[in-house]
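Hi everyone, sorry if this is the wrong subforum. Our group has a chain we'd like a structural model of before ordering constructs, and none of us has done structure prediction before. Sequence below.
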Amino acid sequence: MLLAVLSLAFCLMISVWFPAVAGEPDWQHFKKSYLRDGRIIDPVNGSISHSEGQGYAMLLSVHWDDRQSFEQIWLWTQNKLQTRNDALFSWQWHPEKGVMDANNATDADLLIAWALSLAAIKWQVPAYEQASLQVRQSIVNKMLYSYRDLTLLLPGEKGFLTEESVALNLSYWVYPALNHFAQSNAQFGEVRDSGLALLKQAKFGRWQLPADWILVSFDPEKSIQPWQQSSQRYGYDAVRIPLYLKWAGHASSELVAPYAKFVHSFCAFELLPDWVDLTAETVHMNSADAGMRAIYHYLLGDSARDCEFNQYVSEPNYYSDVLALLVQAAEQIAMAR
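Answer:
Right subforum, don't worry. Here is the predicted structure as tokens:
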């Protein structure tokens, strides 16, 4: 099954070395491509904006010391997305219809709060730290859920918690942000530790990878499973997990092993898929994009250099470019220490 699916993909691809990230974006190019009057557009999805994209762009603008862009992005984010009855952010905004869904995305809230706190430190603006604290307090008040000895991070205020179970996205645990916040609030340290504990349990399929979404049942007789209502895949969400693990210094050999096994298992096929179904163990024929490959190279380094993979020729993609820039930032921060 695996070989048959992989063989279908080769005629549509060109060959590139795995470590290379062709057309790797820089911050200035990213702004020209996606920044419009303070909002980050997602061209693939009708030029809508996400709270996630705003958070990533704020974080990257701090890293590249671009205060003008940061202030522009933060002002738009405040005015258009921070309109709930708390300090969190509506996750989806349409250029013609405005807010399309007022539910929050907790990873975006973490990213925005982290960027604000880093901006306060870099540019000595106490108001940014105050805004960050307000977001963090709303996260503590609304997004943390205690279950047994774990402090869980709800993905959003609505739609994930029932009397029987809770759905989680382990890529929403932005570990470097949680480390930063834990310095002043121990509850974020509890969230971090709970996420690391869940990663040791949420291993599925032949590669023992985490699913993009998991379901934690409150029935002690049932185990953690991929959330069938959303996705049984490892792919575009969960690929951020190893990035955050290494960035935060939590990339232990135990936690890195599944990703190394996944990458090396495809060396012979010259295709590194963008997602795999962890239950059916089927492989999508699209190759991982530049941003995803950048994460694997960042995580595995020289151990991946013996792999040569094919890549689809694709249009510029906001999410792929974000991932590549995050890897650049993480590497530069590590080199500066």
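For your construct planning: Confidence is low (pLDDT under 50) at residues 1-23. The chain has twelve helices and 14 strands.
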